């Protein structure tokens, strides 16, 4: 079958719950004649939680600009604290076990020194006989144990690996996106400004354009750099910040004075274009040569 130039179509993922090729294909199965290939460019919307990847109900922001849903980030912090407590218990047990092993080793060395002193204090002939007996008991080559040599190629004969050492965990909960400490008191409540339209029947979560700038009423999206003002939690465009807000350094919503650190750029998602994201990283993997 010959395909025309319009045979392959690209459909936008309008629903946040469709994240795989199969789900999209099933969703658009009402028009199979048109749908020959679906190109899905998965991306996180700018107003989605970095943990759930769904639009935030109660959005909060970290000082680094990463958006989370309050319920999700609270659950994440509690889970991480439990994991840290478990790792600390394992580390303490390992530390106590190592201390007991050191004490046992010290006692064994002390007993060995006492035995050597006893042997040296005896007659030369008796000492030589005891040393020869000890050497024959240690060696497994001259006795019946010589037939019990371990076969290292047989799985049942291989030596068992010792328990892996547990490193002391960091007691601070880290942000999964930035790696910086994540504290509840540092989170900033975000107040998005809903778009004013007459379509009241469609749910807000299914709309492509959901929020606007709190000052200029420009529609917000992944391709538009945004910032959150710490005093009011309002979301504005970076263009508004540069042209309007930075002139007086006042929050236009509540009139509070602003500092540079009070203007937090929102780490938004990306579109299908390579230059749409804030962080771009390229890696080239090659052969590793052993020295």
UniProtKB/TrEMBL annotation:
Classification via CDD domains: RING-Ubox1_NOSIP, RING-Ubox2_NOSIP
Subcellular location: Cytoplasm; Nucleus
One matching Pfam family: zf-NOSIP
Keywords recorded for this protein, A-Z: Coiled coil, Cytoplasm, Nucleus
Cellular component terms (Gene Ontology): cytoplasm; nucleus
GO molecular function, one term: ubiquitin protein ligase activity
Domain of life the protein comes from: Eukaryota
Signal peptide boundaries: none
Nitric oxide synthase-interacting protein zinc-finger domain residues: 44-81
Coiled coil: 81-108
InterPro entries: NOSIP, Znf-NOSIP, Znf_RING/FYVE/PHD
Similarity annotation: Belongs to the NOSIP family.
PANTHER family: ENOS INTERACTING PROTEIN, NITRIC OXIDE SYNTHASE-INTERACTING PROTEIN
Protein name (database record): Nitric oxide synthase-interacting protein
Organism of provenance: Mizuhopecten yessoensis (Japanese scallop)
């Amino acid at each position: 079958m010959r395909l025309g130039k319009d045979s392959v179509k690209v459909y936008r993922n309008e629903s946040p719950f469709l994240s795989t090729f199969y789900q999209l294909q099933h969703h658009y199965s009402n028009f199979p004649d048109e749908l020959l290939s679906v190109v899905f460019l998965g991306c996180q919307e700018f107003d989605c939680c970095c943990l759930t990847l769904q639009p935030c109900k109660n959005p909060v922001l970290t000082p680094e600009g990463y958006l989370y849903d309050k319920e999700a980030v609270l659950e994440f912090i509690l889970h991480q604290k439990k994991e840290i407590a478990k790792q600390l218990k394992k580390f303490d047990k390992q530390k106590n076990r190592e201390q007991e092993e050191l004490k046992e080793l010290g006692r064994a060395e002390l007993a060995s020194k006492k035995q050597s002193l006893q042997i040296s204090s005896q007659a030369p002939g008796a000492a030589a006989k005891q040393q020869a007996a000890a050497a024959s008991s240690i060696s497994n080559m001259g006795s019946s144990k010589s037939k019990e040599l371990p076969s290292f190629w047989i799985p049942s004969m291989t030596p068992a690996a010792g328990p892996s050492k547990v490193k002391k965990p960091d007691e601070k909960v880290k942000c999964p996106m930035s790696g910086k400490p994540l504290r509840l008191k540092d989170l900033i409540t975000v107040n998005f400004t809903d778009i004013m339209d007459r379509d009241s029947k469609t749910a807000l979560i299914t709309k492509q354009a959901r929020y606007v700038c709190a000052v200029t009423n420009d529609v917000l999206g992944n391709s538009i750099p945004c910032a959150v003002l710490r005093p009011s939690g309002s979301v504005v465009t970076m263009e508004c910040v540069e042209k309007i807000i930075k002139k007086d350094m006042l929050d236009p919503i509540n009139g509070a004075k602003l500092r540079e650190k009070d203007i937090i750029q929102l780490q938004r998602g990306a579109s299908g274009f390579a230059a749409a994201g804030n962080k771009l990283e390229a890696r080239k993997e090659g052969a590793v040569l052993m020295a």
